Amino acid sequence: MDDDNSRTLCFKEFMKGLNDYGVLMEKEEALALFQIFDRDGSGQIDFDEFLITLRPPMSNARKEVILQAFKKLDKTGDGVITIEDLRGVYNVKHHPKYQNGEWTEEQIFRKFLDSFDSPDDKDGQVTKEEFINYYSGVSASIDSDVYFILMMKTSWKL
Description:
The protein is mainly alpha-helical and 158 residues long. Helices cover 56% and strands 5% of the residues. It has two domains: 8-54, Recoverin, domain 1, CATH 1.10.238; 60-156, Orthogonal Bundle (Recoverin, domain 1), CATH 1.10.238. This is EF-hand domain-containing protein.
């Protein structure tokens, strides 16, 4: 749908894409749909907005296990995971880049946090919303609640 390769969709590209895929609707309906996808109101749909809008909602059981993992990592209980929180729960000693001296403990912690952090604001702090958003993306690719919960419990030793 991104005809100009801008990594965003303007309304014109969105309309053309809908037509290309056989989704026929009035311009007013398409505009209302476009506005649902355009979460930040910029007049453009970026890739993250597109994916987030298409994600199916998570069950309460999935949300609960994600919150359990977040609480385990948030040692200070302040609602944000930081490097200080990780020091008590994540051992870097077995990380290959730590073992070969390429990265420091601090760099490994930061890289770990960056994987959960918002792509537009890598500040070294992961909020509950960012953590849930990350796992919402993972959740979308796993059909079974039982498998998702097992994966989370095993990964985080819950």
